[in-house]
Amino acid sequence: MQRFFLPLLVVALAGCRGESPPLDMATTPEKSRAALTAAFDAWKGGADSKALTSKSPPIYFVDDSFTKGSKLVEYRIEGEPKTVGTGMSYVVTLTLQDGAKPAGTRKLAYRVVTDPNIAIFREDGAP
User: Fold this and answer.
1) 109 to each of 55, 76, 106, 127, how far by Cα in Å?
2) Domain 23-123, what architecture?
3) How far is residue 27's CA from residue 30's CA, in Å, rounded to a whole number?
4) Is-contact 120 66, C-beta < 8 A?
């Protein structure tokens, strides 16, 4: 009986040691940059999250400054994106106005995917 289970166990374990195939990308540099630009243009134009999710296709944009109502005065996408996981990561310089405070500039990173939905979120601790 033991002679039967040992070869079966060896074959089973051999299948478990293989590497899993890489995940498919959930965007391209062109699609992700277009989505990021659309989100920032909407924010700069005064849109809120409801306006972004009502677009076709909807854009799900997660950023605390956007959610809290900070005004986007200007933005600049810096350089080329980096592939991170199945998405693209962009460094963006933002000039924000919070109420009566003077506008301040911040450099932040944003992760973007476009498939199956457009989702953009700020990466904490980056760039």
Assistant:
1) 23, 12, 10, 5
2) Roll (3.10)
3) 8
4) no
